[in-house]
């Protein structure tokens, strides 16, 4: 998707280091962290938002949640929050679907 920052990051065009990657998604540190650990899990394929999801995307989102768990395990986090902001009114700023993984 043209002009989508997360699409550019996902293909490696920005040089953002990945903390994790698999065939479905990549993960990297949020540029403006809201908690001591603040990682974004981003799909490789462009989906704008949860509102744009179709049923065929259900497996992908499940894999992104599972990737979040693998990252948290690797970091040894005892607990954490997973957050998806949906729509401008829901606080979404980047319209490429992603999960926030946050921990204190
Ligand atoms: P959201 O408000 O759910 O759309 O979250 C977007 C998040 O992306 C915010 O927490 C931003 O700080 C973060 N962000 C925006 N641009 C970048 C970037 N180039 N690299 C890393 N994180 C970014
Ligand atoms: Zn995108």
Order of helices and strands: HEEEHEE
Low-confidence stretches: none
| Distance from first to last alpha carbon | 33 Å
Strand order of the largest sheet: 1-2-3-5-4
**Shape designation:** globular
Oligomer: single chain
Bound molecules: adenosine monophosphate, zinc ion
The main sheet comes to: 5 strands, antiparallel
How many helical elements? 2
Keywords:
single chain, about 100 residues, alpha+beta, globular, binds adenosine monophosphate, binds zinc ion
Question: What would your notes on this structure say?
Answer:
The chain has helices at residues 5-10, 58-75, and strands spanning 20-21, 25-29, 37-43, 81-83, 98-103. With 104 residues, the chain is α+β, with helices and mostly antiparallel strands. It has a five-stranded antiparallel beta sheet, covered by helices on one side. The mean pLDDT is 97. The protein is built from two helices and five strands. Residues 1, 4, 6-7, 46, 96 line the site of zinc ion.
Q: How would you summarize what this structure contains?
A:
The chain has 2 helices and 5 strands, in the order H-E-E-E-H-E-E. The chain is α+β, with helices and mostly antiparallel strands and 104 residues long.
Outline the fold blueprint.
Layout (H helix, E strand, L loop, with lengths): L4 H6 L9 E2 L3 E5 L7 E7 L14 H18 L5 E3 L14 E6 L1
Antiparallel strand pairs: 1-2, 2-3, 3-5, 4-5
The structure holds adenosine monophosphate and zinc ion.
Zinc ion binds next to helix 1.
